[in-house]
Amino acid sequence: MIRVENLHKHFGGFHAVDGASLTIAEGSITGLIGPNGAGKTTLFNVIAGVLKPTSGHVFMAGEDITGLEPHELFHKGLLRTFQIAHEFHSMTVRENLMMVPARQAGERLMSAWFQRAKVRLEDEEIRRRADEVLEFLTIDHIADQKAGQISGGQKKLLELGRTMMTDARIVFLDEVGAGVNRTLLNTIADAIVRLNKERGYTFVVIEHDMDFIGRICDPVICMAEGKVLAEGTLDEIKANEHVIEAYLGTGLKNKVTAEGGHV
């Protein structure tokens, strides 16, 4: 579904993404791991149109989408969530979801004035859809709470719910488990797997929690210093010498090996 070819993103002399090439298969849940500073989030931002690449190309279903704006990619079904959730904190959880669908009749002044019945029917349908999403994510009990008052894990579920309010095809999740307790993290993992299996969503997940990655992701791609180091199952990635060096450093790897330990 997504093909990245020789992608570069430079900030002055710093090469945050340095010739990365990878493929995301349709229908997969792909994990993207790597040490801090590996270029994972920058890669996400370039693919999702938040940043323009210095060079290289991004294709979606064979179409060159390099440099398109986030709203253009949104309409193509490519969505990206952030490590820090971006909710409308003064609105309820349900209202946050109801804001998502594009081109609502109530947004047009003439419709609001002269097509009130149409606007009301559409609002009722969007509300019904939002309630279905909340039930699917098991957070329907907080539907009427202000989004700014819910927990960090619930905000991550709300972000996931926003992707369900549109015709998402591929969703990029950036550290969905950051600051989330284990119970809610399991709920998030279950929701991702269900969306993948039941609704055909493709996911790409940046995450440092290897248990979470191992539970839901296959394949796993490892980045370091702006490049793709390895791709495979999580066990294959953990056994890869280049990955070990990227995480631990050559010196530490040699020290552990010399002492008869395992890395």
Automatic annotation (TrEMBL):
Domain ABC transporter: 2-250
InterPro entries assigned to the protein according to its UniProt record, in alphabetical order: AAA+_ATPase, ABC_AA/LPS_Transport, ABC_transporter-like_ATP-bd, ABC_transporter-like_CS, BCA_ABC_TP_C, P-loop_NTPase
PROSITE patterns: ABC_TRANSPORTER_1 (PS00211), ABC_TRANSPORTER_2 (PS50893)
Cellular component terms (Gene Ontology): plasma membrane
Signal peptide start and end residues: none
Keyword Transport: yes
Keyword S-adenosyl-L-methionine: no
Domain of life: Bacteria
GO terms for MF: ATP binding; ATP hydrolysis activity
Alphabetical keyword list: ATP-binding, Nucleotide-binding, Transport
Matching PANTHER family: CONSERVED COMPONENT OF ABC TRANSPORTER FOR NATURAL AMINO ACIDS, CONSERVED COMPONENT OF ABC TRANSPORTER FOR NATURAL AMINO ACIDS-RELATED
Protein name: ABC transporter ATP-binding protein
Species assigned in the record: Pararhodobacter marinus
